[in-house]
Amino acid sequence: MASHAEAKTNAILETPARTVDAEDAETKLIQKAEHHMEHTYMGSHVCMLICQLVMGEPGYEQVARKHLKHNNFKRMVAALSRYYEFLNLTTNADAESTAHKRQTKEAIDYLGQLDGCESSGVVRTGTTANPADATTAAATFSE
């Protein structure tokens, strides 16, 4: 959903200027950005919940994979990475915000390790995800 909203926003930006005045165009862009951010926020929290479900549980990990596109967590890592970048730009340094950013980063790292992703969502070459790696990643994550 977030990528669909982002594509619509990009289409508005790329269309040639019409007879619409600048304020109307600004209002439309802000509304599209709000809609996109809402989807990103909701999707990121669903990713966090799924991460908590599969963490250290290879059986649940396999069930979750069956419901994901391409049976991997790469898109979840990418969504969480975008959300993490947003958090870094918009949150302050209070304890609650810092804890939320830390938990988000830990989820990115854990899910990334399962599928051989970097934090940015880029895939490392020559890695595969198997249940033994998940156990190792869970042990590393909980340390």
From TrEMBL:
InterPro entries per record: ARM-like, WAPL, WAPL_dom
Q: Which domain of life is it from?
A: Eukaryota
The WAPL domain sits at: 1-90
Q: Which portions of this protein are annotated as coiled-coil regions?
A: none
Q: Transmembrane stretches, by residue range? A: none
PANTHER family to which the protein is assigned, alphabetical: WINGS APART-LIKE PROTEIN HOMOLOG
> What's this protein's name?
WAPL domain-containing protein
